[in-house]
Amino acid sequence: MRILDRYVIRNFLQVYFYCIAGFISIWLIFDVSDNISTFIDQHVGLRLVIRYYATQLPQVLIILLPVSLLLSLLFALGRMSRANEIVSMLTAGVSLPRVLRPLIGIGLLTVAATMALNYSLAPHAELARKMFISEVQARPGRYIQGQIFRNRTDSRTWFVQNFLPRSNTFNNVQVLQQDANDNIVTNYVATRAFYRPETKTWDLENVKVVHYDHAGISLTNRFILRSRSSTGAKRRFDWAAQMSGPNS
Questions:
Q1: Inside any domain, residue 241
Q2: I want to staple 12 with a disulfide (CB 3.0 to 4.6 A). Which of 76, 208, 226, 248 is the partner?
Q3: Residue 88 lies in domain
Q4: Roughly what angle, to the nearest 10 degrees, separates helices 96-119 and 3-41?
Q5: Other CB atoms within 10 Å distance of the CB of residue 119
Q6: What is d(CA 246, CA 244) in angstroms, rounded to the nearest whole number?
Q7: Are residues 95 and 201 in the same domain?
Q8: What is the number of domains present in the chain?
Q9: Is residue 79 domain-shared with residue 114, that is, in the same domain?
Q10: Alpha-carbon distance 175 to 159, whole Å?
């Protein structure tokens, strides 16, 4: 390889790698900002996150490599033109195709790499993403989010923000007590609810209780640090095992 070829390739590759690294960084920033809440809520480890992005990188490179190639060519040739380096090469008797030959070779290598990724690793990226989601959802300690249960027997509607499967503790619970005409008569809002299977009762922590009249106007509004529900045919939530709720 001639000194001229090494010089042209070095000027081009420097910009080329910067473009690839910059585009990958931008993609990572946007993707992490979209998924960071999921990673935190599901307690996903750093190693699993790195493995996830390693599987998604090939399909991103298919888009980034041609764009990076174009921008690098424009920048490298523009910089050489501003410094009159291309004119000096032509004056020295080097033809323009000969000057561009190493860049054309890199372009062909980029096309080959893109085609290899397109037919080998990239098609599996979507499958890897679905497998990652399935693996995260199957991890122990995953919270079940946003559950609603309608107890038609006692005219109560339960709203639960999240809870662990097969657990007796539920976070941010709201219970609406209704009359025979489905009018809300009492509203219970608790930061946490505990089910006690031995006594078949519910303990509500930091409860706000609001009573309404038939017109929906608030009659009383009080805050209780801890409240226990009445005994009776109570069952704990167990949506993870069967899609049922509290008979309470």
A1: no
A2: 76
A3: 3-137
A4: 30
A5: 9
A6: 7
A7: no
A8: 2
A9: yes
A10: 6
Rounded-to-integer distance, Cα 196 and Cα 171, Å: 15
Q: Is residue 181 classed exposed, middle or buried when 0-12, 13-18 and 19+ CB atoms within 10 A define those classes?
A: exposed
- State phi, psi for 5 to the nearest 5 degrees: -65, -45
- The Cα 202–Cα 193 span in angstroms is 7
| Domain shared by 73 and 50, yes or no | yes
Contact 107, 44 (CB under 8 A): no
Distance CA 238, CA 40 (A): 24
Tell me the CB-side half-sphere exposure of residue 126, using CA atoms within 13 A: 2
The amino acid occupying position 112 is A
Taking alpha carbons only, the member of 161, 164, 166 closest to residue 175 is 161
> What is residue 2's three-state secondary structure?
coil
The model's pTM: 0.53
Side by side, the strands of the sheet bearing 169-178 are 144-151, 156-163, 169-178, 184-196, 201-212, 218-228
